[in-house]
């Protein structure tokens, strides 16, 4: 949008500079290619129905600050140069009988200013204003100015309410709270409440701000809504292939991980069996998974298991040579972004390793199960085709990592580290602990000679929005049951054996930690396939 609605904000750590930092927008390691032509992808402008939106790249600094605490983050606020929003077929005239898509605010309310701030370090004066919309309209952001005078009503536009969606706070940008601040100040990121493949909410790139005195009040700004059902800015199939070949990460598996990935056809051809409840003998599965029952729900009637003969020990180790990433392409944030979800299949998930301070204990069975589906997601801007962030799935959760915090291996291809035995995804090597106080499940990630280049070894298995491409999903994708058997066993005996070897004074605390570990560590239960996961239609968990 225009004025403060396009306000760009940067955060940084470290020693504060006396002057406002001259920050440059982050650039990917390599230039973007010329994407294949087709429809509205990467044209710089996206139609949302009555409103067209563009990506702003030219900003000027308004205000910046740095709290005294070295642990706190500073922030710089910018506004776009010369940007004005305009509705299609709308000359931005005053509100009449037929409400225009956009309208000027009727006034501003001062939310917070540096006049209430004493000894903290900041550059210049900052005033944060909330536009007051006319009846039937919503504000979609705040205006930041360097003067105490109210901004011009012409600086921004409010949006007709039916063209907006509700949004929510998500993550802290700035926290100002000290003896020198009369009214502590909080700034948060914003995102649409309704996200995922079917969500129409469009992130405007603005923020929410409030003083702590009013921190409990509801969010008083909105995001935009995409009412263009054609999703014309989504990439064509040819453009999707170009994106994957340009951005596809290299997935590194831990050097000591013996449970490596394979392709699904390799898993089937090498002895995987389909079992039905009440029947002792399983059925061999063809390479396409054609015999698997399709649809329905995870009702426990069917499951997949490893072969029962000597080939079992071979199959659980996977086959790196056949391994490929299974790709689901879907709209995100109202079709202004594309999510390229890359699924990794491993025939087996190995047992967990527990970290107890300086001690590491490899468990015998706890944590293991047949089959493992993990994933990571590339989020690409449909305005330009730029990689925006990557989601790293980590067991029952995960995290979005912005491009400036990624590790790149070649050009604009990032690195994904798959943890030892459990195959959770991480952006950097290291030991990631699933627990607290130095006690929990280890997730070890490191480079090795075992890796898969997803830019070359992938298969697109689903892209629902490409209905005109005659896209055929593989039969095994429709299998909604578990890809491994459910086995209950007495894990308590193994835990008690571990605890018995510990010094007496820490036994109680260790037992309490074990009680908080995920339920899946106390028995074997195969995962469901990609289409049964919440993120297939919904947004990622974060």
TrEMBL record:
A Pfam family the protein falls into: Vps62
Superkingdom per UniProt: Eukaryota
InterPro entries documented for this protein: Vps62
Residue ranges, annotated region (Disordered): 521-542
Biased composition (Basic and acidic residues): 530-542
Protein name (database record): Vacuolar protein sorting-associated protein 62
Species of origin: Stephania japonica
């Amino acid at each position: 949008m225009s004025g403060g609605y396009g306000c760009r904000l940067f955060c940084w750590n470290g020693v504060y500079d006396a002057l406002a930092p001259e920050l440059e927008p982050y650039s990917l390691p390599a230039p973007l290619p010329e994407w294949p032509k087709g429809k509205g992808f990467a044209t710089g402008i996206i139609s949302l129905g009555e409103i067209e939106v563009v990506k702003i790249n030219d900003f000027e600094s308004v205000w910046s600050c740095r709290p005294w605490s070295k642990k706190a983050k500073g922030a710089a606020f910018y506004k776009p140069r010369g940007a004005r929003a305009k509705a299609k077929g709308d000359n931005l005239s005053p509100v009449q009988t037929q409400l225009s898509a956009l309208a000027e605010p009727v006034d501003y309310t001062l939310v917070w200013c540096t006049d209430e701030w004493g000894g903290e370090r900041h550059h210049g004066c900052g005033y944060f204003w909330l536009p007051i919309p006319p009846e039937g309209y919503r504000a979609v952001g705040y205006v930041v100015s360097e003067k105490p005078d109210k901004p011009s009503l012409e600086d921004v536009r409010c949006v007709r309410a039916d063209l907006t969606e509700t949004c929510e706070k998500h993550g802290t940008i700035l926290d100002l709270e000290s003896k020198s601040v009369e009214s502590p100040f909080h700034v948060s990121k914003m995102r649409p409440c309704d996200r995922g493949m079917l969500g129409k909410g469009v992130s405007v790139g603005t923020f929410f701000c409030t003083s702590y005195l009013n921190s409990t009040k509801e969010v008083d700004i909105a995001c935009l809504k995409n009412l263009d059902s054609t999703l014309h800015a989504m990439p064509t199939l040819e453009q999707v292939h170009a994106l994957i070949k340009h951005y596809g990460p290299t997935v590194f598996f831990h050097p000591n991980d013996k449970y490596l990935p394979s392709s699904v056809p390799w898993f089937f051809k090498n002895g995987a069996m389909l079992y039905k409840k009440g029947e002792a003998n399983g059925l061999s599965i063809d390479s396409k998974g054609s015999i698997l029952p399709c649809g329905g729900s995870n009702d426990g009637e069917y499951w997949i298991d490893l072969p029962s003969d000597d080939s079992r020990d071979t199959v659980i180790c996977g086959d790196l040579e056949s391994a490929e990433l299974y790709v689901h392409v879907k709209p995100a944030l109202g079709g202004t972004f594309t999510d390229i979800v890359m699924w990794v299949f491993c025939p087996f998930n190995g047992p967990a390793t527990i970290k107890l301070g300086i001690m590491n204990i490899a468990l015998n069975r706890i944590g293991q199960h047949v089959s493992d589906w993990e994933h990571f997601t590339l989020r690409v801007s449909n305005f330009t085709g730029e990689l925006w962030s990557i989601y790293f799935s980590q067991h029952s959760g995960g995290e979005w990592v912005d491009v400036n915090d990624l590790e790149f291996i070649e050009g604009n291809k990032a690195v994904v580290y798959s943890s030892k035995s459990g195959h959770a995804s991480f952006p950097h090597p290291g030991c990631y602990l699933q627990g607290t106080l130095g006690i929990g499940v280890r997730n070890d990630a490191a480079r090795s000679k075992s890796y898969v280049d997803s830019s070359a070894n992938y298969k697109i298995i689903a892209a629902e929005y490409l209905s005109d491409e005659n896209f055929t999903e593989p039969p095994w994708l429709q299998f909604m049951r578990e890809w491994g058997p459910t086995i209950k066993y007495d894990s308590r005996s193994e835990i008690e054996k571990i605890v018995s070897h510990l010094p007496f004074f820490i036994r109680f605390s260790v037992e309490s930690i074990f009680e908080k570990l995920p339920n899946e560590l106390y028995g074997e239960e195969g995962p469901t396939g990609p289409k049964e996961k919440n993120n297939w239609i919904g947004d990622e968990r974060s």
